[in-house]
Amino acid sequence: MVEISTSILSINKEESIKKFYDLEVAHTDYFHIDVMDGKFVQNNTSSIMQEYTNIIKQITNTPLDVHLMVEDVKKYVDEYLVFNPNRITFHYEALKNKEDIYKIIEYIKNSNVKVGLAINPITNVENIYEFLPYIHMILVMSVVPGKGGQKLIPETLDKVRKIKKYILENEIDMDIEIDGGVKLDNIDEVKNVGVDIAVVGSGIVSATNYVETMKKFKK
Length: 219
Ligand code: DX5
Ligand code: ZN
Description:
By secondary structure, this protein is an alpha/beta fold. It is built from 8 helices and 8 strands, in the order E-H-E-H-E-H-E-H-E-E-H-E-H-E-H-H. An 8-stranded parallel barrel has the order 1-2-3-4-5-6-7-8, surrounded by 5 helices. Bound molecules: D-xylitol-5-phosphate and zinc ion. D-xylitol-5-phosphate (DX5) binds at residues 7, 9, 32, 34, 67, 143, 145-150, 179-182, 199-203.
């Protein structure tokens, strides 16, 4: 069964509290927090995501799935560790060398938080194979990071297949998450390639009935 991590990126401030409650009632498995710094990607969501995370922590125990699309990874890891998230994911492309990647992996793990490593659509999966035994999750971006409401790039599903095969062959126990453009009309395909956690933003947030929509995504 696939788990659903709801991206709150496209939720307006005015309706945010109600929507967070509704998502909780609909049993989202995680709240997916998209932190953008205006450097790694053009948009800057750092203050609104801080605000939203504070609200979510006050109203629910549903785990947080933090996705950092930032250049200064350490700074934002520190900012989100205080929320005791289930996991923090940072981008392979954000750091200049392997040593820095290993340092951040250790740093997050030492804080008893799971570690995810994200790769952009143009990044080859082979680049991150060496890190897989040390992390808990790989996040395959199925759109170019930076904004919600984009179309899933079909080739990224081949990357998921490839990673799935690799981790099975090498007996690595980890989750695969996909992020971007997941909708009811492609969720079956997403499940079939071996995704464990699907991030869904506009596909849920713009729906009229969260309970029904969530059920359909999970079924
Ligand atoms: C893109 C973000 C995603 C995305 C999800 O940079 O990481 O989490 O906005 O939203 P939808 O499902 O609308 O693509
Ligand atoms: Zn995301």
